[in-house]
Predict the structure.
Amino acid sequence: MNSIDAIRSFTQWRQRIPLGESETTNGYLLLPNEWELNYLPTTMKGKSFLDVGANDGYFAFEAERRGASESVAADLYFDGQSGNKGGWNSTGIQLVKDHLKSHVQIVSKSIYNIHELPSKYDIVLCSNVLSWLDNPLMGIERLASSCNETLFIKDGFLITHQSDAMLRYDVETHAVYYRANLKYMETTLRKFGFK
């Protein structure tokens, strides 16, 4: 079976990753210009990149395509059924890596242990991870300790105009654990040295 056929036969895709010649993985997440919608730099030339909660690796592969000197996809990778809380199947990202002849590093690490990686990264992305954590403050601290330059956090933040920092336990939805307002994020990131 060739690499495109293997990618087509794999059924657990979340992200839609360009494979060349208008071919993509069969993910259900398709946002045009997703890289730009996350305010990531147009070029990554000479920058190292870490995606925490990488799923199928869309952002790690895109960072490499945009010239990253090093690109790392970190998630709770394992062999088996994928799920938001239990981890992510490693088969899909490996199929894409092989097909693209990519140098993206795939590491099975949770946000809580990314500080164990051998280096810090210029650009760190964490998308839709914090609200699933039982200890989001530790998660933010570990992201900060892994970042040399710029940290991008995208999550289900509370849209509230309160002047006080707020981290709300979202027990009634049973979908996520915590939601922070922007003041909480600003205060916490400043605590860990971000401007």
About this structure: Residues 90-100 form the longest helix (11 residues). DSSP finds six helices and eleven strands in the chain. The longest strand covers residues 147-154.
